[in-house]
Amino acid sequence: MAAKSLDAILEVAALLRIPVAEAYREGVVANYERLLEQAALVMAVATPNTVDDLSDFQP
Amino acid sequence: MTEIFSLDATAIAGEVRRKRVSACEVTRTALERADGLNPRLNCFSAIFHDAAMSAASEIDRKIDRGIDPGPLAGVPFGVKNLFNVKGVTTLVGSKILQEAPAEKQDATAVARLKDAGAILIGANHMDEFAYGFTTQNAHYGPTRNPHDLDHSAGGSSGGSAASVAAHVVPLNLGSDTNGSIRVPAAFCGIFGLKPTLRRLSRAGAYPFVPELDHVGPFARSVRDLALAYDLIQGPDPADPFCLQRPVEPTLPTLERPVQALRAALLGGWFQDGADPEILAVTDEVASALGARQTVSLTGVAEARAAAFCLTAASGAALHLDHLRTRPQHFDPATRDRFFAGALLPASVIHRVRQIRLAFRDHLRAIFQDFDVLIAPVAPTSAPRLDQTTLKLGDREVPLRPNVGLYTQPLSFIGLPIVTVPVNRTNGLPIGVQVIAAAWREDTALRVAAQLERDGIAKSPIPAFLREGG
Questions:
Q1: Which of B243, B336, B415 is the closest to A28 by Cβ?
Q2: Interface test with A, best of B198, B199, B320, B343 (most A CBs within 10 A)
Q3: C-alpha angle B131/B186/B250, rounded to 5°?
Q4: What does the pLDDT profile of chain A (59 residues) look like in tens digits?
């Protein structure tokens, strides 16, 4: 998992011009994987495909 | 006789206004305490000796001339080091911003407290760029909890909370994106208010996650919390995110009875894995408010996950330039999370926004039936500084991402919440969230005031102060 994640991370990071130095890779991969777990929860939610009222949130 | 530094802000202002003590004496005492305690607590990143004494002299001159010095006359206060202070570089807990120029003007919230006569004595230590719950900072070290120096003060406004708990200042300003006022208030045993999102001006406060950032006060009494909040309220042309709502004073409402209010305990997510002691204390508060029902919200895990993703992505977007050019100058814990957040697909963030609306609407429906909800602030009291994991029931999870489990879903939709320190005789402080419907800070503060009057809520005095420290 970590190696696959690392490939994906390095590709996208290069696109964003934020090269991830060798020394940071372990920490970045760990945090990216933790983030993906949370993102999976987010993407599993069925929500109406609305675009209204998304950018001007009122509590 | 009670020492001046142990009075709350309201009492200090009364003494100064009646000329029983001068603003200069109060300020000198606060500066001496800040100088004396900072080596132990590491709660200030800058102390403003000259500016504070000069402002105090001005208050004393006003009083001598019969000019109203304001409701916070001579009250020393501090601010998290993400609020702009004129003439000072705003560090935001970072090394990268050390070279930034000094600010040209005060943040709106700072200016409004100064206009009320308060004396700014320093800027408080924090997690780098506000990304954390423990104020453990690789550049400047941790802020230590005044109740036990081996434990965290909480974060990210840890320096602010510690300075109030240690009786250096009676008032402080912090910010809360995912729990950064509520967690340190709970760990340090003081009151903290996270107002409704978009209520208070954030002009001049360095952003972390613009969609989620709130500013708010810390204090050792509810009346101080309400007073500071009331003084900061009101629209601000410098901050279009702050909505155009009239000032709705809460201080005059604190004495109103709360018996008619409908309270409920939050169950499910908000109890899972918490220390038994935390649950017992939260139950005690709910019972005192006559809460007979336990409410389990739906979609909390998803709301928390959504807040987690938005924080990483939006926070990272603000720092892309520095991630490109100066990654070595970040705190590694901050840098690695920002890197990860920068890589999150936009479609996740679109879904995050949809979840946010749905969760907000769910809570709006809940608040048709209840006026206040009660929940723990955190699953644990202040962790040790060397602690890296947290026991959640029978699971062991990484500490730092999970301290905000109970705070993060609620700030995600911007509800007003008061952290109430529960009156206990032993152990580290424990705080409880008093949660109200959007724009009902008055309700949350009234409930906190009732708990304080009933002796259920009280800011504990750190042992070193009881021993004459």
A1: B336
A2: B343
A3: 100
A4: 566 678 888 999 999 999 899 999 999 999 999 999 999 999 999 987 766 666 789 99
CA distance B444 to B154: 22
Residue B362 parent element (H or E) = helix B346-369
Place of tokens 């003084």: B231
For the entire predicted model, the pTM comes to 0.97
**Cβ B172 vs Cβ B80: under 8 Å:** yes
B98 Cβ neighbours under 8 A, 6+ residues apart: B89, B91
Burial class (CB in 10 A: 0-12, 13-18, 19+), B2: exposed
**Hey, is the C-beta of A35 within 8 angstroms of any chain B C-beta?**
yes
Q: Which residues of B are catalytic?
A: 80, 156, 180
Interface of B with A in 76-135 (CB under 8 A): none
**Measured distance CA(B292)–CA(B374) in Å, rounded:** 12
Q: How far is A7 from chain B (nearest CA, A)?
A: 12
Cβ partners under 8 Å of residue B2, min gap 6: none
Closest by CA to B408, choosing from B129, B82, B80, B133, is B133
Residue B140 predicted with pLDDT over 80: yes
HSE toward the beta carbon, residue B250, CA cutoff 13 A: 28
Q: In Å, how far from its chain's centre is CA B8?
A: 17
Is A6 in CB contact (< 8 Å) with chain B?
no
- Which pair of structure tokens corresponds to residue B177? 């994106």
CA of B240: which chain A residue's CA is closest?
A56
* Dist. CA B105–CA B87, nearest whole Å: 7
What distance in Å separates the CA atoms of residue B36 and residue B469, rounded to the nearest whole number?
10
Give the CA distances from residue B346 to residues A17, B20, B341, B350, B399, in Å, rounded to whole numbers and listed in that order. Answer: 17, 60, 11, 6, 28
